[in-house]
Structures are given as structure tokens and as C-alpha cells.
Amino acid sequence: MEGRFEDVCYALDENGNYVAVLSKGWSPKNEAMLQAWDLIREKVDKIRQDVLSGKISPIAYYMEKNIMDIKLLADYVELPKRKVRKHLNPEKFAQLEDEILQRYAETFEISLEELKNYRDTLTRS
Amino acid sequence: MSNKFYHIDFSHHQAAHCENGVTSNLLKHYNIHLSEPMVFGIGSGLFFSYMPFMKLNDLPVISFRPWPGQIFNRITRRLGIKIERFKFSDQDESMEALDKNLKQGIPTGCLVGVYHLTYFPPAYRFHFNAHNIVVVGRENGEYLVSDPIMPGIERLSHHDLQKVRFAKGTYPPRGRMYYIKETSSSFDMKHAIVKGIHHTCKDMLTIPIPLFGVKGIRYLAKQMRKWPQRLGDKKAALYMGQVVRMLEEIGTGGAGFRFIYAAFLQEAAKELDQPWLNDMSKEMTEAGDRWREFALIAGRIFKNRAGQEDSYIAASDLLYDIADREERIFRRLRQIKLT
Prior knowledge:
heterodimer, A: about 120 residues, mainly alpha, 434 Repressor (Amino-terminal Domain), two-stranded antiparallel ribbon, 8 helices, 2 strands, elongated, B: about 350 residues, Cathepsin B, Chain A, seven-stranded antiparallel sheet, 9 strands
């Protein structure tokens, strides 16, 4: 797993006393994490193709990539949920002003240019 | 901005759980040396809640700890330590307040979201807003951070620290910060331990809402049996994964804190000179082992996503057994008195 590190756990030593030990995690835990990330990757990839075929706007792609839902994204960009939902429409997205696009770009931690030229990024990834 | 330079001499220790770690590290800074399990026990950190109507990344909230901030609140109260806590609506104000503290040499605890914590291992970066860190300095426009999950001191830019302090979503931290104002030289450790145990017993046994404590475990057990029919195989498997992640996620020290609590009971047995607590510790370890067994079964279920109704029943049965065990433990612990 990417970026694995050791966490502290408490376990019994041979004399039956509790001691702190470093653990690399164990399988059910690591699998639960992998399950969550596999699912995210699956969703992101599907949306990437929908964006490229013009079904949905790149906002949807970056939203999924950042594991956000409409509510969380609306909180970050400080817009009502119904507006965010509207911006998932590719036609509405194309009409957006830079000021609004900038908010999205900041939230997704990408540049305004990257968001505007999303096709380049999405075909590459 | 970047010319500010504060550096608090703070000794950083890694811990199993962030709030224990932060609390224990802060106390050590003021010369009160308590182990992580001791902080956890006196601060009554053990809990269970299952709130299916609250969602985190579209999945029900299951928690093995009380609300963030409770452990710190409870232990400082029980040791007669004066603390300050703030939350902010203005982001700049929250950063200024933090700077002011650092200038005075006060290590300051902050509640943060982990999604934008740049130094965190990527696999752990979900939108989870109940993480605790201590800010211990500022240097070249960067903040020095003691994060109990990490082995050493980490750095965060002003922008990133502000972002994590004002993370959005379920239970937003709203710039919450806290610190120790004044410690008292004399406190009654034994009394504090007994208080901490009583509180945990109350939380686990007597909250009259069936979502919490052992009743919460039974409620989850009951619901779990119906997951495959109600949610379909795929969603049910995800719910199962969510339980395991909450149970085993960093910060629980494995098995939903049960092993840390067992370690606490062992220390308490010595501190109070009440050897029967060693037996309680053993039983708590057994409950922890059962939680791990549950995680194994749950893991098998979500790995092959095909429907396995039998396994859901087995997992649910195990939870009923755990609930019974924990109820027995806390009913006996409730009788604890100072000798």
C-alpha cells in the first residue's frame, strides 16, 4: 500500500503485561482500506470517460476524485447545492465565469487553466 | 509573515490514538507524565455508537470513541487542570489566535480534517474531521506540528493548516483549538481513575437510547443480519468494510480501543492496588480478540462480494457475544470503589 507506515498498538508481552508496539497493520484492516480505494478508483475512471464523451462536466470528475459529494463540494465552494448540481452539466459548465471556476480550482487544488483545459489532463490520466 | 520564528521545546511521542497522544504529550509538557492508556482510561475514551442516519462518505457512522475533545476535557477536569478552548467563525482570526499562543510558548492542540493534511500517508486521506494535532512552532512561514500518528515533527504551510482547521463536511472542526492554562501540583490520581471508570460504565450501560454502548452493539448486530436483503450484496459489503475501517482505522490501536482499555485496567490495578482489575483486563483483552475475529469474518465477506448470508449471521452473532461480554465487564467495573 502506498505510503504505509507503522502505527502504535497495545499488545501483551510474554509475561502478560501490556506494552506499546509498532504494527504494520493486519489484513482485514488493510483490505478494508484497499476496498474503499478500489471503489473510488472505479468510480473516478467511469466518470472520466463520461466527461470525455461529453455526458457530464469535469466538476463531476474532480468531485469524485476528491471523494466529495454534492453537499461537501457545495460547502467548500460556498455555493448552494442546486448550483453545484447545475455545474455538472457540460453546457452550463462551459458558460461559467472565471470567478466561479477559480473557486472550484482552489477546492480541487488545481490551476484555473487545468480546469479549463480538462480534456488534456483527462486523456492523459 | 515569514519572518516570524517561534519554536517550543516540545517532546513528541507517537501514540495509537490521536486525542490520547495529543493529551498525553500536552500533559508531559507540563510535567504530568501519564501513559497513553492512562490518559485514555481517566478520560473515558472507550465508547460505542452506531448512527445509521448519519452518513460519512455515504456510509453509516460507527464510532468507537466519544465526540472529539471529550478525552482532553474529562482528564483535565479530573486532574484539576485549567484549560482554554476556542472555536472560530473567522479563519484569519483563528490563525492569529494560534500565532499569539505560539509567541507565548504555549503548545496548542487543534482539531483538523485529515483530507488536506499534506504529510499524511495518501491511503489514509479521507474526509475525516476528528483528528488532533499539537502546533508547536512556526518557522519560515511553516508551522511545526506534533501529530501523534507520525513518528516525528511534521510541517504544514500556513495555507494548508488553515485549510485543515476549516475542513468542511460531517462535524466540521471550525478552527477548534485548545490548550493547558494552568496545572495544579496536587491531584488525586486514584480518585481520577475511579471517576474515569465510572463514566465509561455509564456510557456503555445506561444511555437510554439504543444507539450507544452495549445496546448500540446489539442494534448493529440486529441490523447487520438484514443488510444483504435490504441493501443488496454490493452495498452490504461496503457497510461491512465501513465497520472494519472504523474498528481498525489508525487511531483505534486495533479492535476499537479494547486493547488500550485492557492496558489501562492493568495499570489501574497497580495504581489502586486492586488486583481484581487484572482479571477485568484479561476479560477486556478477550473482548478485543472477539472484535478482531469479527474483523476477520467481515473481511472475508467484503473480499468476495458475492452474497453470503451465513457470514452476515455469523458476524452478527459474534457482535451479540461481544455485547454480552462487555456488558458483564462494565457491570462489574461499575462496582469499583476506592479502598
